[in-house]
Each structure stands twice: as structure tokens, then as C-alpha cells.
Amino acid sequence: MEPRSILKLDDNVINRIAAGEILQRPGNALKEMLENSIDAKATRIQITVVNGGIKLLQIQDNGCGIRKEDFPILCERFTTSKLRTYDDLSTMSTFGFRGEALASISHVAHLTITSKTSTEQCAYKAAYLDGVLVGDIKPIAGNQGTLISVEDIFYNMPLRKNTLNSPQAEYTIISDLIGKYSINNPQVGFSLKKHGENNNIVTQPNSTSIDNIRIHYGNTVAKELLEFEMENRSFKFSIKGHISNVNYSVKNMEFIIFINDRLVMVPNLRKSIDDVYSMYLPKSMHPFLYLSMQVEPRNVDVNVHPTKHEVHLLDEEKIVEIVTEAISAKLLGSNNSRVFYAQT
Ligand code: ADP
Ligand code: MG
């Protein structure tokens, strides 16, 4: 056959494909926006959803806001206030900044942003489509902080829209995500509600991680937690968290890990820790863990996957071994003390 000529895809098509890789469901968009609000030092974050976030996903924070001058380029791809050079990637205390989140959202949904900084007299509101500002930047009344509305996600990607779960299941993913971020950010008060209903989950600002574990996972687990803390100088990481003791077990392991304050997956570590617990827990039962790990940014590669959920650590095998051993020692210690108490 005659080969067909090769043509370059239209930019908007390329951008929509890329955005579709980063955002697979409303929860992915919310994760990016939650991180932005936390980066902006918000102490209150309110989320409102309609139809599991498919019809509307709205997030309001009281963070530093976005300057009016930045509105025109806000949703262009690779625009960020957090990263200036490639080297910044390795020295930043948090990570995942690629300036792609808002841009991606604008390629797969109708996006409206309202924001006010502390020095501006009023808030400004603008709408975005396919990376560009549409219409004017309108002055309106508003409090300090940012309000972002994402409507009709995947309106222009019918196949993707069809693969979404039911609104109820998408809502569960969203509330699970907010629960986890509230555990890692107890200084922030979170609320989640379905439009027109009362708040569904609420955490208070200045709570503790345990308060929020209790709210989201119940007192049964909250009262069986051991405080876990470790530091390793050679591999330059530290961990703080709460892990269930040997009296507690569940059918499905709950392994919540934040690395440099981003919720991620580290499958090897999860597996290895589950194996340690299996020596203590009844057959087919699993633990609950919440770990917050700080790593030298240069030792963690977040760009394994466009969604940034799975990360690779430098010396991962060794680190997994060290952490697993520390957890094992902690369990052994608490187990001994139980025996000890029983004897006295
Ligand atoms: P990134 O977070 O990688 O910089 P984003 O597309 O998520 O990229 O956001 C682009 C920029 O918009 C951020 O760098 C930040 O300056 C600004 N921004 C986004 N959301 C907020 C928010 N809730 N509060 C203040 N600034 C925000
Ligand atoms: Mg971001």
C-alpha cells in the first residue's frame, strides 16, 4: 500500500491527550488543587461536588491567592511560581511542580478561577479554555484566597467520561483523598460537601493526625496506633507516622504514605511492611499505616508516571529494607511490653 503522509497533530489535540494522561478522574484534578492550596499556605479548604465531581468540582481556600498580573498566563502549560530552573527540581523541599495541573484541567473541563491576594482591593475572576484566558478578568467581591471551579470534566473526551465510575464511587475516591490529606495536614481544616447538602466530612484547623485518623477510619484503629519515628543519616531520610499495633488488623491493608508532603505509592515498601506484619497478625489480615517521609528531593524521582502517583527512590531497595526493619523492631518492642505487662 501507499504510505499515508505524516502530519503533525494540532496543538489542542496534543494538549488534550497529555491532559488526559495526567487527569484520569475528578479525584486526580482534586489532588493537584489540594496540593496547590496547601502550597499556598491555606488553613481552610472547602470542597463542594456535584455528581461525584463530574458535573462540578469546586475548591475554595484561604491561601495567599494569585496576583492579578498572573491571571493571563495562569493556565498555560508549564507556568509555575514554584520552579525556575531544572536544578530547582533537585533542591526544592516539596516536589511535583511542573506547572501542568491548571493547564491540564483547562484542556478537559470548563475552568473558572477567582482569587484575591492580601494586598489587592478586590478579587478577580476569569474563565479558561484550552490553556487560554477567555473573556475579561473581572473584578468582584471576595475574601482572600482562591476559588476554583471545574465543571463538566471530560466534556470533550466522551470515551474517558464513559469509563468513569458511578458518581457515588467517584465521590468515595474524593472523600478518601481528602481524608488522607487531612491526616497529613492537621493544621488545615477541611470540609467536603455535596452541593445543597450539609458538610459530609469536616476536620478542624490545628487538629492532630490522630484526630483525623479517628474521623476517617474510626476509633477502632485510632486507639491501636503506635507512634513511629525514624531518621537515617546515610540515606538522608526521616519518617514520622502512626502504625497499627499487633492487636489491630483489617482485611484490606491501609498504607498511606506521603513523601515530601505528596501522597504517593511505593508498592515495594507496602509489600515488604505487609510481610512483616503477617508474622504477627491472623492469616489474611493486614495493618494500617500512615507514614510521612521526608527525603532529599534529589533522591526521589516523581516523574515516573504522568500522574506522579508512583515514585522511585534512589537506593529504594536499601531504604525499603531499613524502614521495614525499623517497623519490625517497633512491633517487637510493643509486643514484648504487652507480654511484660501481662506478667506484672
Ligand atoms: P504548579 O503547582 O506545578 O506550579 P499548577 O498548574 O498546579 O502548577 O499551578 C500553577 C500556579 O498557579 C502555581 O505555581 C501557583 O502560583 C498558582 N496557584 C494555583 N493554585 C493556587 C492556589 N490555590 N493558591 C495560590 N496560587 C495558586
Ligand atoms: Mg500544582
TrEMBL record:
Domain named DNA mismatch repair protein S5 is located at: 213-332
Q: Where does it localize?
A: Nucleus
Q: Which organism is it from?
A: Nicrophorus vespilloides
Q: Which family does it belong to?
A: Belongs to the DNA mismatch repair MutL/HexB family.
Could you tell me the keywords of this UniProt record? Answer: DNA damage, DNA repair, Nucleus
Q: What is this protein called?
A: DNA mismatch repair protein Mlh1 isoform X1
| Keyword DNA repair attached | yes
